[in-house]
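Pipeline run #58 for the internal structure catalog. This entry was flagged by the ingest filter as a single-chain record with no existing model, so it goes straight to prediction. Upstream metadata was stripped on purpose; only the residue string is passed forward. Reviewer on rotation: M.T. Logging verbosity set to normal.
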Amino acid sequence: MKNKTLIAFLSLALTGASCDQNQSIPKMTEAEKIHKAVITIDTHDDIDVGNFTAELNYTQKTNSQVNLPNMKAGGLDVSWFIVYTAQDSLTTSGFSNATQNASDKFDAIHRLVNDYAPDQIELALTAADVRRIWKNGKKVAMIGIENGYPVGTDISNVKKFFDRGGRYMSLAHNGHSQLSDSNTGERNGVYLHNGLSELGKQVIDEMNYYGMMVDISHPSKEAIRQMAERSKAPIIASHSSARALCDHSRNLDDEQLEWVKQSGGVVQTVAFSSYLHTQKHNDYNAAKDSVLKIVGKKHGIPVLDKYEMRALEFADLQEYIGQRKKLFALAAADLEAIKKTHPPVSVSDFVDHIDYIKNKIGIDHVGISSDFDGGGGIEGWQDASETLNVTKELVKRGYTQEEIEKIWGGNLLRVMEEVEAVAQKLQAKS
């Protein structure tokens, strides 16, 4: 009898301990459950080849907003790494330098997935690849090309870029390329092609043929109209927001949104503060810079703007980032205080644009991008480690898991599949 009582007591004690242990494990919130259940895709993350070396790369906590530790911490599943080339002269030497720049960035991305972290991240070439890699528990890398300038005048470069993993390309950036006019033409009303050049139209055809998505972020409105009309496959805006909410030439007006919808495409809303709410962006940055300059002067730390930072060589930039982190720590209390009078652009402002695009052209035509490491980042989503906060805001506003799945990646994957199908049909005919 005593043995039975002892056994019962021990059993109760162990059960109680188990219950206490279970109670100490926090339950996942609805947002966390949804975030874990869906594929989260960010369609625009710039890179610096300095972060793709054997000594310093994305397996480490680099100074970049995106790296593998941050992706894991924030539950970001898919990062589109960007082969970006700044616009330069439309000359033989300009094209040659641009093509080399693009090649260097393709090489860097391939080193990450093949040499540095093949056990953690894999390059996806199709929508099916994304789903397979995600199910296997790895992070997913994809490649987008920002600016068709590196194509030069050699249209065979489209296939070369596709063969190296490029799965979307915009035909211009900030400045008119040999392929397309840029949105920057709005500044002075001066354009080069009145939309697309003849070569640009041929490039669209090549992209359709091989299965590369046509990206309308950055080109002029007339160029975008011609792209939507010419492309046989759905088009995307890899990182643009709604112009009705923020009147910036990089955003899409209601007519442009409709063109995307009619093509069956998707607008990847971008977390770039000046494209979300220019006035808030300007007011907060002016107050922030004032604080930083006062504190920086006191401690002998210079305050550089983004253009001055971009002009630094990689090693110098890393050193300055370290100083800047120290500066922000010293100014932390003052920076927090100014948010009460000058609130920064936030995840709430970002989701306002998602709401608008969803209401204007439908839940099937809106997605997400950050433009991290290219100027993106907002209060609540400053780097990939804070990705969950976007899902939290979507849940807060009443979006269902099915809707969030579409926004976070389902719509983009659908477009990819349709682009792939168009390519198969075109190739079958040739």
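catalog note: DSSP finds 17 helices and nine strands in the chain.
catalog note: The radius of gyration is 24 Å.
status: ready for reviewer M.T.
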